[in-house]
Amino acid sequence: MNLALQLLHALKAHGAREIFGIPGDFILPFFRHVEASGILPLVALSHEPSLGFAADAAARMNMGLGVVAVTYGAGALNTVNAIACAYAERSPVVVLAGCPGAVEAHSGLALHHQVRHVDSQLRVFAEITCDQVRLDDPATAPALIARALRSCREFSQPVLVEIPRDLAEREMGAVPMLPPSPFVQAAVDECAREWLARIQAAERPVLMPGVEVRRFGIEAEVAELARRLALPVLTTFMGRGLLADAGLPCHATYLGVAGDPAISDLLDKSDLPVMLGLIQSDSNFGIAGERIDFRRALVASHREARIGHAVYHDIPLPALVRALLDQLPASDRTRLADLPRPEYPTGLQDDAAALTAGDLARGLNDRIHAHGAFPVASDIGDCLFAAMELLPTPLVAPGYYASMGFGVPAGIGMQVTTGERTVILVGDGAFQMTGWELGHCRRYGIDPIVLLLNNQSWEMIRAFQPESKCADLGDWRYAEIADTLGGHGHRVRTRGEFKRALDAAFAERGRFQLIEMMVPAGDSTPTLKRFSEGIRALRARAA
Ligand code: TPW
Ligand code: MG
Question: Is the per-residue pLDDT at 123 higher than 90?
Fold first, then answer.
């Protein structure tokens, strides 16, 4: 079997479900085998950044691997921002990139798509992937692929696999499935014992699950841990959507000064936050009313576990959670009885009042109440704050790395990989970056529902710097583009129109729906308002 086919089988065995790709001559031989073999379906989009966002979101949803296939240089380097996002937010994406064959690489001529050196592509990716391999010898390729795929899964971060164009069709052995990297069970058990002693001695412990919990497929175990320890569960801005369907008695999102004070107090006044697989970023904690001292927390992430200043190395998160559960009897403690419950806006009015950003969550929450939850992809902008006002529902968003342009391709990747109809939240500015990709929905038979919050501006930019004129984007009439791209557009200005458009959009299957929510520039969700007021108050206090 040739290298291309062995690689495809290995990707599938490691949890890949499809390949997001754009061809070019350095990777064409590989594409021929992708299409002819049908081992993994090929999903082609228009612009490489979108491939990266789609593969990232697919990986987040299916807890397997996301795969991107691109040509050398121009193609691969176009994915850099999206792959950097996946690296920062711990999403396992395999980048398959073409590269020159051995003979042409040393011909003395600079090749097209080459930056400075044949190796420039690999060097750039060294900064944004946790492993890089070049398959330049069929004898070593199986072991290299096996290593890269294991790194990708174990660190839950992207890897680069370079395929020299003359190697794709060379015969090669099968790729072995490597056993998990070894760790010392006794160390995990000891760490779990110490953690439990601290948790049981604490007065106001709180459990904070982060993205790794989903990446490693242990949401159910972490929910069980929360139940047995009777701990309130707080997700962060970025971890929103985690444990959404676990039915926990206390489950809310920490929004610091932008959130309900009773909920923010759960962390701000906690003597022991227990952080599992959490990225400790400023977007998660920069809005804290009190300065959080992470030394008082128990933190496990990136194969490390901390207790105060002490660090245990090589502690896989799933092994730690299992050890905690093994040492813990089922519990009927009732510490949760009087804890606050988050409130969500509902009851969108069917009238002629002007639509506001706050109506977005109200409309979707009514849907969730009546018909159940659906997966949501969100971009950056006020739409992400609207996502914080939604009832618990699976959510994929770049809450930490915060790259615009994520929402539409992510939603496409989510529906392709899960087959479930996906709701996409996006602002007009972000839509201008990648909204065009909706034109591909028809050929892949997907019909996401896009809620485009059109405030005719980069509103978040205006919030930070009101004098910036460049933030005015004008009125582009996006709903009209939808029909041209094979979807159906609805432009709505009142609450009644929005309500009817939502009903019509959910009722029609088979083509994507674009609801263009016209809201005045300067309007924002209640959560974004509290967020900017909170930030101003914190700054004033610091000054
Ligand atoms: C790739 C910086 C963050 S939010 C924002 C910008 C320019 C404006 C978003 O406008 P939009 O949403 O989509 O209309 P809204 O609700 O604020 O009006 N380039 C990239 N990523 C980021 N985050 C920026 C710039 C930014
Ligand atoms: Mg906008």
Answer: yes
Q: Where in the chain is the domain with CATH 3.40.50.1220?
A: 185-336
Gap from CA of 484 to ligand 1 centroid (Å): 25
Residue 350: count other Cβ atoms within 10 Å of its Cβ: 12
Asked if 7 contacts 167 with a C-beta cutoff of 8 angstroms, the reply is no
Considering only CA atoms, which of 220, 231, 160 is closest in space to residue 195?
231
What residue spans in the chain does CATH classification 3.40.50.970 cover?
3-164, 359-531
User: Probe ligand 1: pick from 404, 452, 469, max atoms within 8 Å of CB?
Assistant: 404
pTM for the complete prediction? 0.95
What CATH number was assigned to the domain covering residues 185-336? Answer: 3.40.50.1220
Pairing relationship of beta strands 159-164 and 205-209 according to DSSP bridges: unpaired
The CATH class that applies to domain 359-531 reads: alpha beta
End-to-end CA distance of the chain: 67
Token pair of 433 as six digits:
């970056």
Domain range 3-164, CATH class:
alpha beta
* Dihedral sign, Cα of residue 65, residue 71, residue 75, residue 76: positive
Residues with CB under 6 A from ligand 1: 380-382, 402-405, 427-430, 453, 455, 457-461
Closest by CA position to 363, among listed 347, 379, 343: 347
The Cβ-side half-sphere exposure at 421, using a 13 Å CA radius, reads: 16
How do residues 366-418 score in pLDDT, each as one tens digit?
999 999 999 999 999 999 999 999 998 899 999 989 999 999 999 999 999 99
Pocket test for ligand 1, best of 79, 460, 517, 532 (most atoms within 8 A of CB): 460
The atom of ligand 1 lying closest to the CA of 528 is: 16
- Taking the CA of 433 as reference, the closest ligand is 1
Give, for ligand 1, the residue of 461, 468, 469, 531 to mutate: max count of ligand atoms closer than 8 Å to Cβ.
461
Q: Whose CA is nearest to atom 2 of ligand 1?
A: 404
Q: By the 8 A CB rule, do 430 and 457 touch?
A: no
